[in-house]
Fold each of these.
Amino acid sequence: MEYNPITVTDLNRYIKNKVDNDEYLNNVLVKGEISNFKHHYTGHMYFTLKDENSLIKCIMFKTYTPNLKFVPKDGMKVMILGTVSVFERDGVYQIYCKAMQEDGMGSLYTAYEELKNKLEKQGLFDAKYKKPIPKFPKSIGVLSASTGSVIRDIINVSTRRNPNCYIKLLPVPVQGKGAGEKIAEAIKIMNQYKLADVIILARGGGSLEDLWPFNEEVVAHAIFESELPIISAVGHETDFTIADFVADLRAPTPSAAAELAVPNVNDLLLDLEKYDNRFKNSLKKKIELMRLRYEKCMTSRVFKEPLQKINERYISIDMKVKQIQNLITNKLKDDKTKMIELITKLDTLSPLKTLARGYCLTTNCEGKIINSVKGVKKDDELIIRFQDGSSNVKVI
Amino acid sequence: MGKEENINFEEAMKKLEEIATELEKNDLDLDSSVSKFEEGMKLSKQCSQMLEDAEKRISILLKTDDGVVEENFE
C-alpha cells in the first residue's frame, strides 16, 4: 500500500481556501475583551480577543487604525468588524480587523453626537455667549471631587501662583448615575449665592462612560445659564466633553484651569512696580522740562536787558512827536500859500481897479447902484463915484 | 483692611494704565502732574497691599437646609 501524504503547505492552503470562501467569515462582527495588545512600530496592531472560555488572534493593519475613535488597551471590551482568514505560514486563523468600537459605548457615542449637534444648533456653544474670565478673581470656586489628584493639583498650582489665593471647593460626584444632576445643582448654588468670581469644573481622565455626566444636557444648560464664568477641565487633553464646548473657557487639564483662573501674584507685583517706575519717570521728566523752560526764560533778552523795551518805546515816542511837529509846520505853510492866492484873486476882482481905468459908479442917495437909465428921473439927485472921490449931481 | 477691599483690582489696573498714559503724554501742568502722580502711587500701593494682605484660604462649601456653610478644607 502506497501512502500519498500532502504537504503542510498544501493543507494550510486548503484550509485557507475553505475559510476564505465562507461568506459568513468574510464579514464577521464579534465582541470580546482585548488582551496582549501590541501597537507594533510598523503601525499595525496585534492583540488577542477573548471571553471567559476562548480566545482568537487579531490584527488591525495600519490602514484601518486611523479610523479608531479610542486607543485600545488591554482589558477593554470591544466590538470588532473583520474578516477571518488563515495565516498559512503559522497555520493559525485570525481576525483581520477593519473596524473596532468600544462595546456598549456605541450607543453613548451616538447620544453624545446627537446632543452635541442639538446644543450646537441651539447656540449653546456660540462664542458670543462666552463670558470673559476675570483677571483677578477674589475667590475661585471649584466643583470637583473632594478627594483625589484633581483638587490637589488645583490647590497646588493656585497656591504656587498666588500664595494668598482663596479657593472654595463645592464637592460634587464626577461619575456615575445622578452625577449630572448634582453638578448642575452645584452650578446653580454657586450662582444663587454668588460664591465665587469664577468656577472651575474639573475631573480627571477616564473612559467615555466615566466622563458621561459632563456630556449630559442638564449640565450643559446649567453651564450655559451660569452668570459666573466657568472654566471646564474635564479628562485629559484629548477628551472633549459637551461641558467643554459650553464652558466659557476650556482648560486641557485641571492644573491648566488653575493657571487660567489664578493670576501669578509675582507678575502682578512686577506690573505694579512697572507702573510706579512709569509714574516716577514721567514726573521727573516733567520737572526737568519745567527747569529747562525756566532756564530758557531767564536767558531771554527781557531778563538780560530789561531797559531795552523801554528805550525802544522812547525812540518810538520821539518819532511820533517829530511826526506831529512836521504835520503842523506843513499845515501852516499850506494855509499861508492859500491865503496869498485868495488875496491876489480878491485884488483882481476889486471895483476900485475898474474906477482907475476911468469908469464911474452911480448910486442914488440911498446908496443903491443905478445900472439902468430906467432907474432915473428928472431932478433925481445921484452920487457918482470916481477913483479918487465922489460928487453929487442932479439929473436934468 | 477696610477701604482697600472695595477696589476692584481689574479696574484699578486699568486706572493705573490710564494715569501712566496721561502722565507720559506730558501736556499736563505741573500741579496736575503731581496730583496724578500721587493718585497713581497711592493706587498702586493699595493694589500691592491688597495682594499681600489677602489671606490664603482653602474652604469647602457644605450644603445645608438654610443654604451653604463654609468650612476650612484640609
Amino acid sequence: MQIIRYLVIKEFRQIFRDHMMARIIILIPFVQLLILGYAVNTDLKNVKTAIVDQDHTPQSRQLIKSMYASDLFLPAKSDVTPDNLEDRLGSDQVDLILWIPRGYAEAQSRHQSAQVGVFLDGRNSSIAGRAGGYTLGILRQENQRLLENSTLNASAFSLPIGRITATTRFFYNPDLTSRDYMIPGIVALIVTIITAFLTGMAVVKEKEVGTLEQLMVTPITPLQLIAGKTIPFLILGMIELTFATLFAVLYFKLPFTGSILLLFLGALLYIMVTLSVGVFASAVSRTQQQAMFTVWFFLVYGILTSGFFYPLENMPAFVQYLTYINPLRYFLPILRGLFLKGVGFFDIWDEYAALLTLGILFFSAAVIRFKKTVE
Amino acid sequence: MKRTLAIARKEVFHILRDPRSLMVSVLMPLMMLLLFGYAIDMELRDLPIAILDQDRTPLSREFISHMTSSEFFIKNADLASRDQIEAGFRRSEYRAAIIIPKGFDEKVTRGEESPVQVLVDGADATTAQTVDNYISQVVILLNNRLVENREFQATLLDPRIRFFFNPQLRSADFVVPGLVAVIMMMICALLTSIAVAREKETGTLEQILTTPVLARNVMIGKVMPYMLISAFDAALVLIVGYFVFKVPMAGSWLVLAGYSTMYLLIALSFGLLISSVSKTQQVAMMMALLATLLPTLLLSGFIFSVDSMPLWLQVVCHANPAFYYLKILRGIMLSGHAWYPLEGGIMLGMAIFLMTLAVARFRDRLE
Amino acid sequence: MSKPESNNHIAVKAEKLTRRFGDFTAVNSIDLQVQKGEIFGFLGANGAGKTTAIRMLCGLLRPSEGEAWIEGLPVSKSAEKIKRRIGYMSQKFSLYNDLKVWENLEFYGGIYGLSKSEIESASDIMLARLQLAEYRNTMTVELPLGFKQRLALGCAIPHNPGIILLDEPTSGVDPIARRKFWDLIYELAESGTTIFVTTHYMDEAEYCSRVSIMVHGKIVALDTPRELKKQQKVTTMQDVFLKLVES
C-alpha cells in the first residue's frame, strides 16, 4: 500500500512539474465544454434562404411570412431566378430556395393543389435534410390552415367533419435543446482522453527512458505498478468529471436529475475500462507514439459506435454488434439518463452490469499482457 | 537540399522501423471511413415506440398501423396503463408513446375533434423533433383521408422538394469530404508534432543542430515524410470513397490536389508550431489532439451547422482551415465548382502565416 | 582458486548461464562465483555480453539455460526475495529527470518499503555520502553526468542491499567523477557489501579484488588482477585484456 502511495505521489509530481501539461489538464474541461457546448448544437438556425415569388399575391406573401416566422430561415441577399437556382446554390450564396410559381393563389381558390418548389444545397446533407424537413413541416401547417379555411367555407355541407388532433408532450427536455443531450457526451469524452491517453503514455515513457527496468529490480509487483500508474489518472479523471459536471450545470444550466452517487459509480466503472485500455496500449507499445496511436484507434472507434452523434438504432446490424464491447455505449446512456431523465439504479442497472463486465475483462487482459511485458 | 533529404531519409527509417504506427496511420482513416460510411445514416429508422390503445376500434387499429407501416417506427411495447410509460422512457425502451383514449373512434364519427396524446422522450432533442414531425405527418395523412371520404380536395399545397448535388442525400457523399479534412489535419499535425518532440525528449535534436544543417533543413526534412503519409491517406480515403461508396467527383482531381496541398501545408506548420512549444511527446500529443480532432470534426461545418452557432463561435470557425477546405472539397466533388478565390486566398494566407511563425518559434527555441 | 569455498560465503553464483536471442548467443554458458565482500570486476569489450549476463543475475532476463544464485537463492525461483537483497544500477542511470534530487531518493526509498522517517534520515545521510547535499532541490535533468551517476547509485541502494550490481556505472564521465565514484564503491565494500561491476575501463579493473574477462559471450579468464598479469606476463590490466581479446 505504501509502495503504491509513493508511486502515486511521484506520478503527480511528474504531471504537474510540466507546466504545459498542468495547464492542459486544468483547462481541458472548461475550454472543451465551452466551445463544444456551443458548437455541438443540432438545432438549425440561420439557414440562408432565398424566395422566388412569381405569384405576388397576399396568399404567397402569407406563405413567405410563415417561412420567416422563426429564426430557422434567414433571408439571403441574392438575385435568384428560376434559371440560376443551381448556380446560386452551388456558389454557397443560399442554402435553400423556395419557389412560389405564378398561379399559386388562383389554384387554391379553385380548390386545386398549388405546387411549391423547395430547392436545397445537398452537399451538406445533414443540414439540407433537416432544413428540408422543417420546410415541409411549415408547408404542411400552411396546408392544414388552408384546408380548415376551405372547410369553413364549405360548411354548407350537412355533416361536420371529424378530425384527429395530436397533442405532443416532450419529456425531460421540453424545449428540445439539443445541447442538453450532447453535453453529457462531451463530459464522457473529456474523461476518456485524460484517462486512456495519459495512462498509456505514462507507462511507455518509463519504458523509453529506462526507469521501468530500474523499477523491475525493486520489490514492486506488476499489480502495484499498474495501481501506481493508474490511480493518479483515476483521480484526475474523477476531478475532471466533477468540474465538467459542475460547469455543465452551472454554466449551461443543464438539469442534473439523477443521483451523484450513481454518477461517480458509473464513472468509476467506465474509467476502469479506459485505464485498462491505456495500460494495455502501453504493454503492447515500445514508444509513446505507438501507445498514442493504439489509444487513438480505440477512441475513434469508441466515439463512432457509441451513439454520440447519431442514434444507435439507425446503424446496420453488423455495426450494432461492434458496439457491444464499446464502454462508451454504456456510459453515455448513464450520463444522459442521470443528467436529463432522472433515472434510478434499477432503470439502468444493465448498463452498470455491462460496464462492470467490460471492466473486469479489459482489466484482466491489460494485467496479463502487462505482466508478460515486464517479465 | 542534400541535407534536407538526409534528414528526410532518417525520418523515413524511423517510420519504417515502427510498422505498427504506420499501419495505424493508414488503417485508421479506413476504419473511420467504413464506420462513418456504413454506420451513419441520417435517415432515421426503426425507432421503438409504445402504444396504449384504450379504444380498440377499427379506427384506432388503423391509426396504429399507419404509424408502424413504414420503417420509421417499430412497435416495441403494448402498454396496459399510463403509469408504465415513464419507466419505459427512463429505461430507454422506446422513444415515444402514443395514447389513444377511449371514445377515439366515436368522436371522429360524430364529427368532433378526437384527441390523441403523444409522449416523446425529449432527451435526444434532434430525434425527438423528427419523431414529432413524423407523427404529425401521419395524423395529417389520416385526416386527409377522412376528408377525402367526403370528396374534398385535401392538398391545397403541394410541395416539390429537390436536393441539388446530392439528390438522395447519401451520407457517404457527406462523410467522405469531411473525413478527408479531418484525417489530413489529424495525421499531419499529430505525427509532425510528436516526431519533433520525440527528438527533443531523447536529446537527438541537439545532436542534429550541432551539425551544419539549418533549422530550415531540419524542419522541412522532418515533415516531408509525414506530408507524404497524409497525402497518401487522403488519396486512400478519396479512392475508397469513389469506388466503394460511389461518391461522385464532379470537378477535377488536379484542382482538388492543388487545394489539398495548401491544406496539408497548414496542417504541417501547425504540427511544427505545437512541437516548438512542447517539451515532451505527451504534451505535444495532447495539444495536437485537442487542437485538431474535435475542432475539425465539430467546428468545420462537417457535422454541425456553423450558421447556427453563436457569433463568437462562428468567428472561431472562420479561423479553422478545415472550414474553408471542407467547403472547397464539397464544392469540387459534389457540384464541380472549382473557383474559390476567397477561401483559397485565406488558406494560402494561413499557410504562409503559420509556416513563418513555426519556423521563427522553432529557431527561437533551438538557437 | 585460493579462497575457502563455503556456500555461506558466496554472494553471487552462476552455472552454465546461457542466453540466446534467436540464433545469436549473447552469453554462452558462463560459470562464476563471487565471495561476499568482494569487488568483482566483470570485464569485456562492448557487445561481449556483459549487460545480458548482469540482467540475468538480477532476474530481469530469463536465462535460456543454466541458473544463477544470489546468496544461495536460485534467481529463477525466488526473484521476489532476491530483489530485496540486491541493488542494481543500469547503464542508463534510470532516474526521473523531471523530479528533484531528493524526490528521486524519496521515491526509491518509498518503493523499497522504507517508512517516512526512515526515508528522511536515510536521504540526508545518502545525500551527504554522495556529496549531493547542496543539490537536494535541483531538478535531476540539470545535474552533470557524474552527479547523476552518483544519484543513480544512491537510488539503487536505499534498502542497504548486501549485493550491488553495477552495469558500466562510469561510462561517459570524467576521470575526477570516476575517482569519486570508486571512492564510494570502496566505502560500500569496506562495510561488507559485495560489489559486482561491469566495466570496459581497464584502470578500474585494477581496483577490483577479482576480475573476469568476457569475450564473445564466454568468460576467458577469471582471477585476481595480480594473478592475471602474472599469467599473461604483462604489467597492466590493459595489456592482459588486449592479449586475451586478440588471441
